[in-house]
Design brief:
The chain has 402 residues and is of the alpha/beta class. The protein is 45% helix and 18% strand. Strands 7, 8, 9, 10, 11, 12 and 13 form a 7-stranded antiparallel β-sheet that branches. It has a 6-stranded parallel β-sheet with strand order 3-2-1-4-5-6, with helices on both faces. Helix 3 packs antiparallel against helix 15, helix 4 crosses helix 13 and helix 14 crosses helix 15. The protein starts with a strand and ends with a helix. The model has no long low-confidence stretch (mean pLDDT 92).
């Protein structure tokens, strides 16, 4: 097999490239060279497992695979966090929706747009693997900037849910891959309509466990929603609550503490690097692999527009990804998912085109903001001012509203 070139585009203090390349070497099934470009220029060192390059062009030219992993830290978002809390808005993940997710979208989308344009120029046939949040919006940006791109978004939440199910069933922790699920929704707001182990439907056992455990320890929100809606969320509590009405779980700091939702940005997850390697191996023709991924809806999920970025199971084969039919969600769950999708669409438009007024419209329709127009406008103006140095369309927008 020819040597595969993998471009890893990182940012900030993101060091995920180390774990990825170590997993790649551990599997040792493909010959690959990883070229790392730090979007924020905070790393200049190359390790034995990868090569750091000084320009994005050097990383991307003739790449077979491109991994995009841009990150933000709590410190980088602190001013926005404090501003939102001043208006009674408490967020625990800060990466997809809510005022903090909307502002993150405005910062991230231009960077993803730039990367997509570079991919079109330098490696148009590469497979592009994104796990930058907001993930749905980032994948949409890739396709909007380069319609012929071969891209998908990676999320490990469903895999962690499979591990949770495996643990609830009392099985060996190494056997979690035997848990099969049907997952559907949008990134960080996904649900399981099926879960089997050895061909057996295990949802009844999970429901019995939820009844006994919903008010104890971890995953309280997940179990609460499972008992309410009859479908189990495939996302951790801290992330899924941001898609729900404020008064459900994030009404106050006391509610946040009561439900065990203290803020914590996501940590590195070993499983995601293992799955990245499996996906690359499958696309290289070494094996088939079925796992969840975020891609444009081509009919695999009912109740969502064609082209919307949805998360379902897909089958990875040689130079091909085939979305698997997932069906639809109950209307009461689907209505919540669609509302979140519509908010992300407004935020995407604001970030891609620089029409930041659409970001304000996203805030006033957001489940967590729950503000009157005056306070929503005040919050939006403050957050926009906080981020003006990171928003490429800021000056043009200010001129347009004067």
């Amino acid at each position: 097999m020819k040597d595969v070139k993998i471009a890893f585009i990182g940012g900030g203090k993101n060091l995920d490239v180390r774990n990825f390349t170590k997993n790649l070497q551990k599997e040792n099934k493909i010959s690959a060279t990883v070229y790392y470009y730090d979007f924020d220029k905070s790393s200049n060192k190359s390790e034995t497992t990868y090569k750091t390059v000084k320009t994005i062009d050097n990383a991307l030219i003739d790449a077979d695979f491109v991994i995009i992993s841009l990150s933000e830290t709590i410190d980088e978002m602190r001013l926005d966090i404090l501003t939102a809390e001043k208006y009674g808005i408490y967020q625990t993940a800060c990466d997809s929706v809510g005022p903090l997710g909307i502002m993150r979208t405005l910062r991230i989308v231009p960077k993803i747009k730039y990367i997509a344009e570079k991919i079109k120029e330098l490696c148009p046939n590469a497979w592009v693997i994104n796990y930058t949040n907001p993930l749905s919006v980032s994948v949409k940006t890739l396709y909007k900037a380069f319609p012929d791109i071969k891209a998908f978004g990676v999320s490990y939440e469903a895999s962690k849910t499979r591990q949770l199910i495996n643990s609830i069933l009392g099985r060996n922790e190494k056997d979690w891959q035997d848990i099969k699920i049907n997952v559907l929704g949008i990134n960080n707001f996904t649900f399981l309509t099926q879960a089997t182990c050895g061909g057996e439907n295990v949802l009844p056992k999970l429901k019995e466990f939820a009844k006994k455990s919903y008010d104890k320890g971890a995953n309280r929100v997940r179990y609460d929603l499972f008992l309410l809606f009859g479908v189990i969320p495939a996302t951790c509590d801290r992330k899924i609550v941001e898609f729900l009405p404020k008064n459900w779980y994030l009404k106050s700091p006391e509610s946040v503490k009561e439900w065990g939702l203290e803020r914590d940005l996501e940590n590195e997850c070993e499983e995601i690097f293992e799955e990245l390697v499996r996906q690359i191996e499958a696309l290289s023709g070494l094996s088939d692999y079925v796992v969840n991924a975020n891609m444009p809806n081509r009919g695999q999920m009912e109740g969502m527009p064609l082209g919307a970025i949805v998360e379902t199971n897909v089958k990875f084969t040689k130079d091909c990804i085939k979305p698997m039919y997932a069906g639809g969600l109950k209307s009461e769950v689907q209505s919540l998912v669609y509302k979140a999708y519509a908010e992300e669409e407004l935020a995407f438009s604001a970030g891609f085109y620089g029409d930041y007024e659409n970001a304000f419209k996203a805030i006033i329709s957001d489940q967590l903001a729950n503000l009157d127009f005056k306070d929503a406008r005040s919050l939006f103006n403050e957050m926009l001012e906080n981020n003006k140095d990171k928003l490429p369309y800021f000056e043009d927008f200010i001129k347009s509203i004067k």
